[in-house]
Amino acid sequence: MSLVGPSGSGKSSLLRAVIGLQEPLAGSVETELPPSDIGILFQDDALLPWKTARDNVALGLTFHGLDRPSALDRADLWLERLGLGGLGGRYPRHLSGGQRKRVALAQVLALTPTLLLMDEPFASLDAIVRARIIQEVAELVERERISVLLVTHDLEEAISLSDTVYLLSQGPRAQIMRQYEVPIPRPRDPVRARTHPAFAPLYDKLWSDLSREVGGGARAVA
Amino acid sequence: MWRNPRLAILRQTFVLAVLIALWEMAGRAHLLNPLYMPSPSQIAAALGELFGSGRIWPHLEATFAAALGGLAIGIVVGIVLGVASALLPFLAELLEPVMTVLNAVPRVVLAPLFVIWMGVGLASKVALSFILVAVLIFFTVFGGIRQVDRRLVERIVTLGGTRWSLVRHVYLPSVAAWVLGSLKVAVGFAFTGAVVGEFVAASRGLGYLMSFAQSTFNCALMFAVIFLILVVVLVIFAAAGRLEKYLLRWS
Predict the structure, then answer these.
(1) Does the model's ipTM exceed the 0.90 cut?
(2) With CB atoms 3.0 to 4.6 Å apart as the test, which of A24, A75, A124, B244 could cross-link to A54 if both were Cys?
(3) CB contacts, 8 Å: B165 with chain A
(4) Which residues of A fall within a CB distance of 8 Å from B171?
């Protein structure tokens, strides 16, 4: 599912509250999952610059009690799976933006979360790399049976990746305004999904609702 | 050859050689008073005598011991105080004004005081080197820790890291990077401290040798020692540079 909404509606805060980086101002977060089953991917990669790609991926595994050699083996496996075989020895500085994003993804997925939170994870990538990575993520999520909560300001991204899109109202004290079911069948290719007959009408509806929410000013949408 | 940037070092050496040759010729033509401005060959002779007789070694040893001792203690104390101040606000409240004052004044003014307190031996030179280096490192570490990338911290936390993992994987490497970044300046400071300390009062060391040359109006010896200090610091700079490049190869 995805959350979209005007800036300041607290989308990111909600994710941060779910993973425990900040306390909700009111109410509580209820989850049946232990924290170790939740992974989060931020907009920036935040890889440790002084560790190689495989060390970065292995880090989270060692936090969960795996010994270093097995953690490194697993890291290699995940890097391979994300198309980074052979680049494990590189430092983040020597990787492209798309490669760094994949390392960050491997870092999170290696912990086999059952819920993955993503906070505008693809915003910093250029269009082609972005489309490729989104396809890969969709595939992996489908295969590993991971639930995803995606925060984005990109309506196309929200629709093409989600079963349900929630629209948040203008903050402060934002609420879920509406909920939209996406009638495109799964598994789906997020790039092809945009040509599905149900895509355009849903996009239109979301866009007009969102525009109305920010007072007609489409420029303020972010 | 005048345009190729890769030959810059050749051109620089060439110009330097010409200048030295001119200097030598001016000396031989009695255009320079050797009492004030000895010729390059006279300086070379003084250097040759220092090494030939072997009397330079105790002086070199004394200066190196003072500079490296002050450097090592200064780095350790600077890091400890910097980290402690960054983590404990009440300590920062006490230390920061002191360090700011120490940073603002030329710390070499403390040299005569250290001689009175610790005598003319090695201790007063180590102390001067130490105070020069420690203040520098303190500010490097203190400022650095407060600027640690929040995103890295959050990343470690969300991956399941503990407080100790934060220290080990985020704070320590960050601190190491900043300290290495100011290592060259610190080396320069350490030698300044050692030489100035010896200059003020000592019985050994390059600074002592300079003060001796000054009191005996021996300009050739003076130039020889200045040259030696230059070479020593350049060599250590190069070593520090290589260490920095190796340890910061990720950046």
Answers:
(1) no
(2) A75
(3) 63
(4) none
